[in-house]
Structure formats: C-alpha cells, structure tokens
Amino acid sequence: MRILRALSELPDDARGATAAIGNFDGVHLGHRAVIETARAAAPGAPLAVLTFEPHPREVFRPEDPPFRLTGPETRANRLAKLGVDWLFQLPFDDWLRGLSPEAFAREVLTDGLGLAHATTGPDFQFGKGRAGGVADLARFGAEMGFGTTAAPLRELGGLRVSSTAIRTALTEGRPRDAAELLGHWHRIDGPVLHGEKRGRDLGFPTANMSLDGLHKPRFGVYAVLVDVLSGAHAGTWTGAASVGVRPMFGENFANIETFLFDFAGDLYDTHLSVALVDFLRPEERFDGVERLVAQMHEDCMRAREILKDLA
Questions:
Q1: What is the model's pTM?
Q2: pLDDT tops 90 at residue 116
Q3: Number of domains the chain is built from
C-alpha cells in the first residue's frame, strides 16, 4: 500500500481510484463493509481509502479526552492487510476545513484525486460546517463525473458497529466484545520505551509503551498476544500486560507494561503490537512488594491458561 499525504504528490497511476471515505478509527467491521463496497463498485480500479489527519474531532473538540482507538501508523497497517492500494491521508488543515461541500467534491475528489467512485457510510457529512451529506455527494458526483455509494450500517447482535461501541467495551474491560465489533483484537502499537526498570527488579521485566493520544482501556491486568514487529526477536509471543498508572509506585501517567512469557532479550527501541485478549483484574495497590509479586505470578498463570489455545 502506498500512502499519499498531499494532493500535489498524486501520481498519474493513482487517478481513477474507487475510494472509501471516512476516519476509519479502529478499522472495525463497519469500516471494512465500506471498503468492500468501494472495491465492488469499480472492479479493477485502484482501491483507495481517503482519510484525514489529525482526526477532525481532535481539531474541533480539543478539550475531549483522548478517544482514538488507533494512531495513523496502526490504521495504515490494518488497511494494508485489507488489500488497500492507496491511502490518501490528507492534512485536515485550514484550507480543507474551509471548503464548501461543492468545493470539496470538486477540488479534492475530482480535480485533486480524480476519483472514479466514492463510497461512504450512510451518515457521512462533509464540507465546512458538515453541511454536505450523502445526497449532496451523489448530486456532485453526477455533475462532476464520479459514482457514489452509501454503504449500509453494519450491525452485530442488534448493536450498531461503531467506534463509540468499541470504546465503551474497552472502558468496561470487555476486550473480547470489542474484538467482535472490530473483527480483530484491539491492539496498542508503538515503540518500546525506557522506563524505571522496576519490573526487572521484581523478576518480571516489561516492555513499556506510551498510551498518549489513545483511548484508555479499563486500567488493570490483561492476558495479551504480542507481535514483536522489528529487531532480532521479531515474532509472536504470549504475555500479561498492566494498563494504568501504577498506584503501587505513586506514578500518575498511564502507560502499558507488557511481560512476555518465556522470553529473554532486549526489546528497547523495537516496535510492538499488543493485543488485549482478556481482562484479568483491576489495577490495585498492595500491602508490600511481596504481595504484589505473588499476585503477578497468579496473573501470569491465569493468562497462560487463557492464551494456550491462541498462540
């Protein structure tokens, strides 16, 4: 998959694409339905996803707590696995925000990207003040020479598949329910950072990763699957991870610390992808380090049992 971050970078072979348009936070089953609808709308055409960075909600509601399920890198990796040829990741800047719906259709979709077909969800809104909807897009497409399709909403067990429903499941410590809506495990991706190395002193060396900019799952301990994406130890491992603020040690910023089972090696500066499989217990403060270590052994035993058929 090739990524384009400015209209001025568009090569000739990217024109004539069939594009799914939206934010695609989490790349859940509803997003996949939009992408597959776009693929079917113009067989043989390059398959593209058109999205925006930063997420518009981050621009218009900066006071909101972090809400994103995935950062740009994770989203791109997931889209590539779905067979997307082009990711048009355009900057959500003053120019783009100021375009009327008609100007967006003409300057971005037609003149800028030369789309053959545009597919959206049924509640898609676009243009300054979110003034345009799917009926407007269809009208502009007829005038400007590109086709349009509004993919239907996706439901699962009577529940609408949405990023909001997935965030709710994660907030409540239900990662398997989130995975059903996503169509894959919810993953936290990123580089391994240097920490306080307390886990090593306790006999549980952990790979520490930031949660900055991401929706925070329920704080506590999880059974996890871990893909080491780079470095000498690249591969898949099982483990247990602690998500939270480490109340035992008085820290106050949230991160994720992952202990890989049966692993020996240095993971600093490598990239990991940590999949939350099951919530084991809430984060808590213990009466002494010995009690903490005993609980960590119990957590790992439970996680191994849960993961034995998944590795």
A1: 0.91
A2: yes
A3: 2
